[in-house]
Amino acid sequence: MAGGAKESPRQRMIGMMYLVLTALLALQVSNAVLDKFIFIDESLQESVRITKGENEKIMDGIKQAVEKSGGRDKDMKVLKTAEEVSEKSTEVLHKIDEIREQLVEKSGGLDEEGRYVGAKDYDKLMTYMLGPENSKSGAAYDLEKQLDGYVEYLNGVTDSLDIPEMTKSGAEMEMYKNNEDQKNKDWAQLNFDHTPTVAGLAILSQFEQEVAARQKTAMEYLAQKVGADIPKFDKIVAYATAESKYVAAGTDYNAKLFLAASSSTARPRMSTNAPGGIKKINENGVGEISFKASGGNYDKEGNSKRTWTGNITLRLPTGDSTFTVKEEYVVVQPVIQIRSASVSALYLRCGNELQVDVPALGVTYDPSFSADGADAIKGAKKGLVTVVPNRASVNLTVSSGGTKIGTEKFKVRKVPKPSLKPYSGNRPIDLKTGVAALSIRNIEMRAIPDEDFASFLPKDARFRVTRYTVTLARGKRPVATVQASSPNVAIASLIQKAKPGGTDRLVIEVKEVQRMNFKGRTEPVSGMNSEIFTIPLN
Questions:
Q1: Is the Cα torsion angle 437, 439, 445, 447 positive or negative in sign?
Q2: Angle between helices 73-106 and 123-130 (to 10 degrees)
Q3: Are 118 and 197 in contact (CB under 8 A)?
Q4: Which of 136, 326, 363, 478 has the greatest number of beta carbons closer than 10 A?
Q5: 506 with 537: CB under 8 angstroms?
Q6: Can you name the residues that pair with 372 across neighbouring β-strands?
Q7: Per-residue pLDDT reduced to its tens digit, 102-156
Q8: What distance in Å separates the CA atoms of residue 129 and residue 139, rounded to the nearest whole number?
Q9: For the whole prediction, is pTM greater than 0.85?
């Protein structure tokens, strides 16, 4: 029987990397998102259980075929090989199960409600899987050797079937070979470095599924050698299987539509109302469906239920028969994560840097941004965007691969005005006690930014007093004035005209303060042209 769980190497690799990179991006996500990782893990475990059952049926078919053929020597050799494949597959699956149990135990086990205590913990997982301080002595490296040996064994007993390996490093993967952050990582680091417990469990389940799928490929190959793969068309059922019923908006929905009793001699005709139709029908009579899931109409839990229908027409001795299947899938609303020094509000006409991530999209995340009430400047790194507001509120729309993911709303603050303070000789001037007339020759007016604003956006917190006057006053009349066009100004000419007795004073009137933004452009700071400071001369 042709199995819907059989996948191409490319599809299996995409499935594995989707789990891995989604987990790596989900370290600080909410419990609701972590619950979805648990759901993925449980779904994969169910898929493993189903594939194991299919492998058992293939083994039973081989035994029956050998028995019916009279136990010929060549068929008995095939049976022995099939039994060895089953034993070695069980060993690998048992090893992965042991690792899963250890991870659960080392992360705190289960609470009274049966939930993982250390669901978000990744330190214990890294220590166990990678070794202390990433020493490459952890369980992942032993597992890697076992997986490599398993694939090597399968390729040895299946001649030229060329079963693909499961443990590629970053440099061996097309998507990572030019990525400076990933290309130097080995298989264990790619999968388990900074990965929370629930994601690690899902990754291990993914590899259990890959082991079971490779076992199935080998068992089907061996079954062909004794004729156990010949289907008996006593029951024909239309069947559809999807990689997952839950799919994030902006990612591909992948499913297969096929006859449970299809064979290499069957040439069914297939059609579907799914977007894009049937992509292809492979040599096993399995139709492949793939389309980009669109979002919208989410329920309160962030899910949107959809369906598609497929038809399979098969020519039988009695004429054409059409079988119909209806499949449901669920589009999950992606969670947009925004990281910044200050996320609750942005600053007007400033370069507010935001790191926007959508963990559910994994490696397929290809972000683009548009903004209402601001300019959105895409950064050099994936997900980095600089938002420059020009209104009191901003709507930032996030898309991936041309598909809208969602819109985040921000309030906009005005840039806080700097405080002004006169200095002399790099020391602040005390406006209450004044200064000795003979000790002051220069004045510097400094514009000091708000402390919080400067820590959030240092490139936008560069203020400068660009124009002010200093007047020597005596009683109610001015004696002399100097104009300043920079923060520093010499006032020796005023001091020479000052009289002793403590009746003279210096009056500073600020005319203009400017701010330099993150692009190096300057703009005047409004409301700063009436600041006046009086300095008594002793």
A1: negative
A2: 140
A3: yes
A4: 363
A5: yes
A6: 395
A7: 999 988 988 888 888 888 888 898 899 999 887 889 999 999 999 999 999 999 9
A8: 5
A9: no
Closest CA to 470 of 402, 535, 374, 387: 535
Token digits of residue 221: 């190959």
pLDDT at position 160 is 67
Q: How far apart are CA 470 and CA 491, in angstroms?
A: 8
- Three-state DSSP class for 256? strand
- Residue labelled with tokens 């098969």: 314
H or E stretch covering 323: strand 319-332
**Residues 262 and 321: beta-carbon distance below 8 Å:** no
Q: For the chain, what is the mean pLDDT?
A: 83
State both tokens at 305: 């239920």
- Residue 323 CA to residue 59 CA, distance in Å, equals 29
Please enumerate in sequence order all residues whose Cβ is within 8 A of that of 183, keeping only pairs 6 or more positions apart, or say none.
170, 171, 176, 177
Longest distance between any two alpha carbons in the chain, whole Å: 128
Are residues 225 and 78 in contact, defined by beta-carbon separation less than 8 angstroms? Answer: yes
The pLDDT tens digits of the residues spanning 424-436 come to 988 999 999 989 8
Mean pLDDT, to the nearest integer, of 433-442? 88
Q: All domains of the chain, ordered by start, with CATH?
A: 1-230 (no CATH), 231-333 (2.60.40.1930), 337-413 (2.60.40.60), 419-536 (no CATH)
Residues with Cβ within 8 Å of 389's Cβ and at least 6 positions away in sequence, in order, are: 346, 347, 348, 349, 350, 352, 373, 374, 410, 412
Is the pLDDT confidence value at 29 over 60? Answer: no
Nearest residue to 4 (alpha-carbon basis) of 255, 180, 210, 341: 255
Sheet holding 427-428, edge to edge: 427-428, 419-424, 442-448, 488-490
216: nearest Cα among 56, 9, 107, 84: 56
Residue 114 tokens read as 């049966």
Question: What is the C-alpha separation between 405 and 385, in angstroms, rounded?
Answer: 15
Phi/psi-derived region of residue 390, left when phi > 0, alpha when psi is between -120 and 50, beta in every other case: alpha
Q: What are 54's two structure tokens?
A: 């299919």
DSSP per position, 45-62: HHHHHHHHHHHHHHHHHH
Beta bridge partners of 320: 315
Tally the residues of the chain: 538
Residue 170 gets which letter from DSSP? G
Secondary element (H or E) of residue 337: strand 337-339
pLDDT computed for residue 133 by the predictor: 83
Sign of the torsion angle spanned by Cα atoms 179, 183, 185, 188: positive
- pLDDT for the residue 159: 79
Q: Which amino acid is at 111?
A: D
Question: Where do we find the tokens 């930014």?
Answer: 449
Take residue 502 and report the two structure tokens written for it.
């403590």
